[in-house]
């Protein structure tokens, strides 16, 4: 089974994804959406979180074999980064969304050597803004960030453009289309609702949803 599909099934099992094609969620941006993701719920399911951790570790070994330090974004990326660092037997750090307002004013916690090769772990990527913020913080503190990996991504053009503009390679374990396939297979959604979901996703990627 492809890892994208396996992770998607795990997210559905953990209730980390909710699909409501006839009773839409409202995102913080105001966009009406048939899907809501909260990958933080996966940490409560040992089998699911292990699948995710092993998948992320394998992805890092494949795409960033020279990685020396694993960094998690606060807060949802932290547990995944800890498990992946354990699998890879590497140091782990985490990155706040902004520097502390007291003490040394650091944005990262943990220790790494100047020039250490770091990979950032994010839970969900929409536009990529928070991930790039973490990359910039690590670079300011002397790291050499190799790239970003995430548990889930909407693969929006804005994210692809932002990562390319920042010069940061990016990969994700799972995505929307894998979720739809897994939802159909597990009965989490009716087959007749799938065309509507895919149309919504096409409009989302095209920037037609406001």
Automatic annotation (TrEMBL):
User: Its catalytic activity?
Assistant: orotidine 5'-phosphate + diphosphate = orotate + 5-phospho-alpha-D-ribose 1-diphosphate
Provide a Gene Ontology MF annotation, just one.
orotate phosphoribosyltransferase activity
* Leading EC class: transferase
This protein's pathway: Pyrimidine metabolism; UMP biosynthesis via de novo pathway; UMP from orotate: step 1/2
Q: Which cofactor does it need?
A: Mg(2+)
> So what does this one do?
Catalyzes the transfer of a ribosyl phosphate group from 5-phosphoribose 1-diphosphate to orotate, leading to the formation of orotidine monophosphate (OMP).
Q: Which family does it belong to?
A: Belongs to the purine/pyrimidine phosphoribosyltransferase family. PyrE subfamily.
- Which HAMAP family does the UniProt record give? PyrE (MF_01208)
Against NCBIfam families, the record matches this protein to: pyrE (TIGR00336)
The protein's name is Orotate phosphoribosyltransferase
Originating organism: Kurthia gibsonii
Q: Which gene encodes it?
A: pyrE
